[in-house]
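#structure-requests
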Amino acid sequence: MTVISNSAPDRSVLHAVKGDAIDIVFFVNSELIATGHKFYVQANEAPEDGSPFTASSLRMQVRRKDGLLLKDWTSGVSPADITIATGSFRLTDDDGFLEAGFFDYDIQETTENLTIMRGIFYVEKETTV
């Protein structure tokens, strides 16, 4: 069976501590492949592969394994949870997560309907309450 896709998203595990604010800068590179875009995403520095990819509009959702939506971050609103720059974007959330666990997430470029990144968001329980 052949799988045809419009993108090959980066797959990464993200980490946070329950109750801590989130502030992560993601650098995004891409390259064109036969089926569309292949994405390379890294925090704190640009990936070596691909060329800088600048999104027009982004949305990131985090869901529990039962499908319950925990976080829904977007760009293009005021105040924006996601701010976009050339070849990168910044995710900020002063509240962080209210529960610990292993959750599913993905980040989509909503103008072109491309999934840039997906994987597990591990939220560690807090020790000091």
